[in-house]
Amino acid sequence: MAEVMSFFFVFFFVSPIVLCRASLSSDDLPLERSNFPSLQAEEMIRKLNLFPAEKLNLMEHDPSLTQRLVEKRFKFPNLVGDFEGVPVEDLAHHAGYYKISHSHAAKMFYFFFESRNSKNDPVVIWLTGGPGCSSELALFYENGPFTIAKNLSLVWNEYGWDKASNLLYVDQPVGTGFSYSSDARDIRHNEDGVSNDLYDFLQAFFKEHPDFSKNDFYITGESYAGHYIPAFAARVHRGNKAKEGIHINLKGFAIGNGLTDPAIQYKAYTDYALDMGIIKKAEYDRINKVIPVCEIAIKLCGTDGTVSCMASYFVCNTIFSSIMSHAGDINYYDIRKKCDGSLCYDFSNMEKFLNKKSVRDALGVGSIDFVSCSPTVYQAMLMDWMRNLEAGIPALLEDGIKLLVYAGEYDLICNWLGNSRWVHAMEWSGQKQFVASAEVPFEVNGSEAGVLKAYGPLAFLKVHDAGHMVPMDQPRASLEMLKRWTRSKLTEGGADQGNLVAEL
Questions:
Q1: pLDDT tens-digit readout, 287-329
Q2: Could you tell me the sign of the dihedral formed by the alpha carbons of 57, 61, 65, 70, in that order?
Q3: CA dihedral for 420, 424, 428, 429, sign (positive or negative)
Q4: The pTM is what?
Q5: Dihedrals φ, ψ of 448, to 5°?
Q6: Which residues of 205-229 are buried (b: 16+ CB within 10 A; e: fewer)?
Q7: Residues carrying an active site annotation
Q8: Mind listing the pLDDT tens digit for each residue in 235-256?
C-alpha cells in the first residue's frame, strides 16, 4: 500500500512534464504511454477505423456567423428506394446549423428526421459520447433511419428510432462532427458549458419548429453521454422552472452504457473482469490495490476540480489499463469479440460517405471538415471526466422526470455491473422500493431480450447479447425499448409486471 500511496503523491505533486516520463517499479500499476490523454484519444479513434483530417473544427473566419439559421430539407444521394412507398421528401429530413446564442461564435450542426410513424410522436435527441465523437456514428451504425452499405449506398433501417420518434442527432461539444466555431473560447471543458450550449440549441430548434414544441421530449445517448445527459436534463428542467424561453416538454432521459458515477463504476471494473473470466483472482487482487487511491483522487476532484481531477483521470485509468494488459486483443466494447491489431470496428464508410461532394452539397456544409472524433475535444473535457453526474439526478426523479439506464451485458468499458451499482446506490425517495423490486424479463417477440428492474420513474435494463452499442447489436430490442419507455409501458405481460412499472 505504501507503493500505491507513493504513486498517488507523484500524480498530485509532480509537474506534467515529469508525469510524461514517470514509470512505476511495481507490476501492479503499469503506467503505459497509452494512458496519456492525447494517445488514448487517438487510440480510441483508430479502434473505430476513423481518420479525421482535422483534430477540431475551429475556423479562422466565418462570414456566415451573422446568419441566425442555416437549415435545409434534404435527400441523401445514394439512398436506395422510398420508405414503404412513401417518398423521402414527404418524410421531412432536415440538416443544418444553429448559432449558439450565448457562445462567442459557435454553430452546432444537427440532423432532424421527422417520425416515419406520426408527427405527434415524441421528439428524441441523441448524444454520442467520446467525449468528442460525432452523433453520426449512431445515425449510420446504430439507430438512425439508414445504414451504410459497402458500396456507400444507404439502406433503410428497419429498426431506426425515427419509426417511434421525431429524431434529432447533434454534433457536440462544439468542434465535433460538422459543428464549429471561429473562437477557441467556445471549446468546452465541463458540463456547464456543454449543457448551456445544448439548451441554446434546443431553444433555436423549437423556435424554428414550433409545431414540435408541445411534443413530449426525451434525451438519449451512450458512453460519455452518461455525463452529458444528466447535466442537459437538469439544465432543461431548470430553464422550464425559471420560464426561460420556450418551454420544453421534458419527460425523461436515457443513458446507454454510460459513464455517470466514476467512483462506483471504476471500482466495478475488476469485479466485472473477474466474473467474465478476463482476469484471474491473483490479477484481481493486485489491480484492486489501486482502488482506494482512485476513490481518494475522485473525492479530491470533487473538492477543487482542477489538478486533482487530472490526477484522478490518470490514477483511476490504471485500473482499466491493467485489466487490458491481461486481456490481450479483446474488444473492450464487446468482450465476445477480438480486435484485429488496432482495429475493433470499421466505421470508415461514414467518413467516406460524408466527405462525398454530393453528400456535402445535399447537407449544405460547404468546405467544413467532418471531424468524426476530436482528440482536442477529448482532452478539453479531462477535468470533467471524474465528476459525479449522478448528483443532479435525484431532484429530477422527485419531479417525475423518468430515467432509463440500460447496458449491454458484454461491454467492459462502461459495463452493466458498474451502471447497476450506481443506480442502486442513488439516494432518492424511491430508493428502497427500487432496490426491493423484483427483476422481470424484458421480452421482445416472445424472447427474453434483457432483464428489467423498475420503480416509479427509475428503470434499469440489462440487455442480453449486446456490447457497448446496444442499438447496433440489438436493433429490434432497442427500438422496442424506446417505444415502451416513451409510452410508459416498459414491460408487457401479466398484472404483476404491469404493477411493477405502473408509475413509469
A1: 999 999 999 999 998 765 677 888 899 999 999 999 999 998 9
A2: negative
A3: positive
A4: 0.89
A5: -75, 115
A6: bbeebeebbebbbbbbbbbbbbbbb
A7: 223, 411, 468
A8: 999 999 999 999 999 999 999 9
